[in-house]
Design brief:
Strand content: 5-15%
Pfam families: FUR
Number of domains: 2
Largest sheet: 3 strands, mixed
CATH architecture of the largest domain: Orthogonal Bundle
Protein name: Transcriptional repressor
Bound molecules: zinc ion, manganese (II) ion
Radius of gyration: 17 Å
CATH superfamily of the largest domain: Winged helix-like DNA-binding domain superfamily/Winged helix DNA-binding domain
Strand order of the largest sheet: 4-3-5
Family: Belongs to the Fur family.
Keywords: DNA-binding, Iron, Metal-binding, Repressor, Transcription, Transcription regulation, Zinc
Number of helices: 6
Organism: Desulfomonile tiedjei
């Protein structure tokens, strides 16, 4: 089984709930809805995209509420934030640790490539520079399968 499959969205939801409870945060139905979306994080959603999804079930939810819970989860290391200078930040709650991404410049889709060579690359970088690597950010940009078809 690939390593990434260990983090099912159910496990991640459970972990996020446990972290919030251990910090005495109340789990409101709205918060739970946000957590469920982030635990799945299928498309690395932006705050605005989370907001649109949550509003289907909870029309009175404010964008500020979503921003707050996202900031909180980030603070608690339960969320990986991908910042972009000209676009909305995107979030991965399924894998809240650094990992490489592949990003479609046309439709803005973000995926997690399954890499076997990445640990080797990290070791080589550490060996050649003498750095102790703590964090990394590795993005590949291009056109996804769907966007290549309509080009
Ligand atoms: Zn695309
Ligand atoms: Mn990811």
């Amino acid at each position: 089984m690939p390593k990434d499959d260990c983090n099912t969205s159910g496990d991640r939801l459970y972990q996020m709930l446990a972290t919030l409870k251990s910090h005495d945060f109340r789990i409101t139905p709205q918060r739970l809805a946000v957590l469920k979306i982030l635990a799945a994080s299928e498309d690395h959603p932006s705050v605005e995209q989370i907001y649109e999804k949550v509003r289907v079930e909870f029309p009175t939810t404010s964008l500020a509420t979503i921003y707050k819970i996202v900031a909180l989860l980030k603070e608690l290391n339960e969320l990986l934030e991908l910042g972009f200078p000209d676009e909305s930040n995107r979030y991965d709650g399924k894998k809240p640790f650094p990992h490489p991404h592949v990003i479609c410049t046309k439709c803005k889709k973000i995926m997690d490539p399954e890499l076997t060579s990445f640990d080797e690359l990290k070791e080589e970088i550490a060996r050649k520079t003498g750095f102790r690597i703590i964090h990394h950010r590795l993005d590949f940009f291009g056109l996804c399968r769907e966007c290549q078809k309509v080009e």
